[in-house]
Amino acid sequence: MKDGVIADFTVTEKMLTYFIQKAHNRHVLVRPRIVIGVPSEITPVEKRAVQDSAYRARASEVYLVEQAMAAIGAGLPIEEPLGNMVVDIGGGTTDIAVISMSGIVYSRSVRVAGNEMDEAVMQYLKRKYNLLVGERTAEQIKMQIGSAYPLEKPLTMEVKGRNLIEGVPRTVTIDDSEIRESLNECVATIVNAVRAALERTPPELSADISDRGIVLTGGGALLKNLDKRICEETGLSVSIADDSLASVVLGTGKMLSDFHLLRQVCID
Question: CATH no. for residue 164?
């Protein structure tokens, strides 16, 4: 998977087959109903690729739902006539949606999320220190000292990588302000998308969002002080879902057990 859609058809099919068998205790003849979360701006071709992969992995029925809608796993009352705004920052995409009465009033997907942040950290270290680090190290740096808004207590971290000029291992010490600088463009893109969503929300629902605030889900929501940054830029209260890493998975699970809700929210 890359940017929230399929990059390698065969590998995705094998991955789905593995997970289906694992969920059903290795029973080979099982043909389950599957719900898959996809980015809101997925193209018809990408949609078809996801469905085909699932059917070839022996699914009996395949339902696609927008990832932001799956935020019912964050405990949002999406069936009520109230405006709920959710920002789901995953690995490949950030999905922003305003949801009311089990329907999406406005949705936007930007292909800037966790993976893009990791890439930004790698490029920054390459530029400033001539230090080459892998994706895993970049992710660790982002998680340990990365932030979207100045921290109360400065953080530092020793980073090991390969010197690009001499070709030998090298260790440098970096601080949170450097990583914040490297992530600034990614964070600004997400914040601008949130502001655009607020501008295009109907006035009645804007009042609800003003009262209830914005809910962040997904692994990217755990970036330090991202809620503070969005709060400062929008003037709205921002909260992080209790189990933000698993909220989309929990949401799709709820839809599987509530077939009426699934029929309402799935993409045709």
Answer: 3.90.640.10
Tell me, letter by letter, the H, E, C secondary structure of 202-258.
CHHHHHHHHHHCEEEECHHHHCECHHHHHHHHHCCCEEECCCCCCHHHHHHHHHHHC
Contact status, residue 209 vs residue 172, Cβ threshold 8 Å: no
- CA-based angle 69:74:77, to the nearest 5? 70
The residues near 175 (Cβ < 8 Å, ≥ 6 apart) are 145, 154, 155, 156, 157
Task: Judge whether 200 lies within some domain.
Answer: no
- Residue 145 belongs to domain spanning: 114-179
How many degrees, rounded to 5, is the angle at CA 32 between CA 19 and CA 107?
80
Number of residues in the chain: 268
CB 108 within 8 A of CB 96: yes
pLDDT digits (tens, 9 = 90+) for 84-95: 999 999 998 999
Residue 135 placed within a domain: yes
| pLDDT averaged per 10 residues in sequence order, the chain, 268 residues | 79 88 79 86 88 90 84 81 91 91 89 95 97 96 96 95 95 96 97 94 92 93 96 95 88 86 83
Structure tokens at 260: 């009426």
Residues paired with 96 in a beta bridge: 87, 108
> What is the spatial distance between Cα 112 and Cα 263, in angstroms, rounded to a whole number?
30
